[in-house]
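Hi V.,

You were right to ask for the full record rather than a summary. Here it is.
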Amino acid sequence: MFTPKQQNEIKELKEAGVSILGISKMLKISRNTVYKYIKATDGQRVGKDGRHLGFKGYLVDNEQLIMKRFLKLEGNCVDLAREIQNECPYQICLRTLQDFCRPYRSQVVKKPRKPRAKKNSRKRSLTEIVDSSKYVPVIPDF
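Predicted structure:
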């Protein structure tokens, strides 16, 4: 995948009158790749299949901002998706967001949680259970 600067270079060469074959030889890329990037509209990131990257492109373009928010939210991708929902022009895919944030998981610093109070789980004997309950044994008469 090319950076926007490289995409602009391809478009500028085409506008200057350089042929597709000439551009592909100069940049050492295939002719199909040149066609793909010429066809893309300005500012769009283009994937391998020639289509714009959409949400992935948005994440790549805003990587630093996404990373800061991810770390601030202690690695919670669901909350991050809710937070960027209004400003992202594409449909948010949680799985894509999780995959994108995976390298930053090691940087997440979680706040320590309060230890849970342990229940007194002492084992009681059968006589204690019988004595503490209202169980009255019935002895049959023979």
